[in-house]
Amino acid sequence: MGDDLSSVFKKVTRKGRTKEELAEVICWLTQLDTTELEQTITSTQTLAEFFAKIKLNPKANLIKGKVCGIQVEVLADPFLRKVRYLDKLVDELAQGKPMAKVLRT
Prior knowledge:
Blueprint (H helix, E strand, L loop, with lengths): L1 H13 L4 H12 L3 H9 L4 H7 L12 E2 L2 E2 L6 H17 L4 H4 L3
Antiparallel strand pairs: 1-2
Helix pairs in contact: 1-5, 2-5
């Protein structure tokens, strides 16, 4: 999973956001704490294994919009929907949206 997240870290830091902000977003979505997130980043599990083990934030259903032309809230495949939720949050973070909006608070 490290390779997947490392490219995400590069994307948001190129746009002027911090790794800490990205970690906050991922922890919000996945309900992991920062220690669990660090362990996940250094593990060899796949994204499918990662998303199979976590419980999404109950507010994840508030994530709406398109990622790569696909409406995230209508995806039937639970795995793909979880991945696209993360994509959408990362995109919003990289676009400079305030953290309160990204975290649906």
